[in-house]
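Job type: complex structure
Entries:
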Amino acid sequence: MTVVLRVHKLRKAFGGIVVADDVNIEIAKGEILGLIGPNGAGKTSLFNLVSGVLKPDTGHIYLNGVRIDGLPLYRRARSGIARTWQNMMLFTTMTVMENLLIAPRSYPGESIFKVTLARDRVRRAEREARLRATQILDRVGLAHAADAMVTDLPFGHQKLIGLSRALMNDGELLLLDEPMAGVEGAAYETMQRVVRQEADAGRAVCVVEHNVSFIKDLCTRAVFMSNGRILQAGTVDELLASKALTDLYFGV
Amino acid sequence: MEYILTIVVLIAIFVILSSSYNLVIGYGGLATVAHPIFYALGAYTSALLGIHFGLPAAICVLAGALVAVVASILLALSALRVAGDYLLIASLGFQLGLLQVIKNFEFTGGPGGISAIPNTITGPWRTPAYLLICGGIAALTVWLIARIVHGPYGRAITAMRDEELAFSALGRNAMTIKVVVFAIGCGIAGIAGGLYAFYFQYVSPDQFEVLHSAAMLTMVVLGGMGTTMGPVVGAVVLIAIPQAITFLNLPPAVMAPMQGIIFTTLVMLFLFLRPAGLVGPLSRDRMAGRTALEKSSGGVAE
């Protein structure tokens, strides 16, 4: 079992509010780990710590055995962390295709020098990105919407574009923040199928999700968080069987 | 005739200014009010180099642009390192502070400014020649900015402006793009300053007051923020209209506040009636996108 992500004794506090308190997590290649817990448990904060939006107070984060907690946000994405956002954060003045084209791990087009002096390289990268984007849009069934503005798509499709954009990054770790919130019908099936395929292809996936059946269907292992602490780790069934946890979760 | 040609030279200079301001504020989404001071840096640098060292005008103008670029990078690095929103405050401070310095130094001519900037082109063809030079550089500026904002680099600028956090989390270096866009825009303003100095042979601090960024912003908004041709249209309209009114022979008491009234009225009208500006392609793009979607899917929104 190859460990892709290892979070070691991570701690982060905002004043008196502790969002990560001695958090230890390991995610292996091909595994889908569920991250559950009540609102405010620190699930999204953990994603922000791992992806580099937040800097931890103490503790380490390793990606493929390499420490990454000192790297800025954009360098962590380049080192192979792809993530989605609860509120999607799509580029709203751009088309679906443009949203995807901007997202590969390496994008020489963001350097004014390469754009001016290494035009062949930029052009080649554009071609490859377009090919990859077309394939991904095909997989999520939205190839026909490539030239539509993202804001013109229905909500469920926007969620799928959020996932597709993250998949442009071919890194080893995929963090999905509430991919199912507000998604139903065909988009739900697609989301589930694609996430499963990504894990099967060898990605380590971590999902924050309130939809328990989604977690149950996809994850072999899950972690229950509350108040920044990991209360229990185990199979989804084990976690759901624990009365203490379900009470916490459903606020009984 | 000479008078009208002079107005056209002024229009060309303002096309350069409003287009570069649009690159920074419209495309880059970088809120700055310091554009006049980079214009000033270009003007004063070329004026001083021309007077004291007698360097060729082209070298002076390029040196002016270089000074504007260096100053803008220093401002951007210090302001953007903290957070994007600080740029507005930092640029205001930079604009006001540096203009005070210019007003108070002897070698910059103090509040009176610098006159007797060497005349580089003499004879009856002076103004037409400048018209050609300024018009050519204005066209080059518009072309260059269009090149920058389209294609892979432009896509990065747009994405950064739309959603910076998501942009960075995809592996893109937002800081570098901001600094580069800011430096290019301010450097172009520096070139406009050099052209102004050599054509009018006179620069004074009140031409570079912070209020002039409002005039430039009006040109950008009226023409269409975040469009290539918008600032061009804006500059032409907003320089031509006040000049045309002078032909009406109105009494000075009416004339004096006229320009302010026109600018303010136009901005308010446009903000309410046509926020996308005269050129306004944003809505057109969106419509094109929607039509493409409907055509290909037969109404995707199930």
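Summary: Residues 119-139 of chain A form the longest helix (21 residues). Chain A touches chain B through 49 residues (CB under 8 Å).
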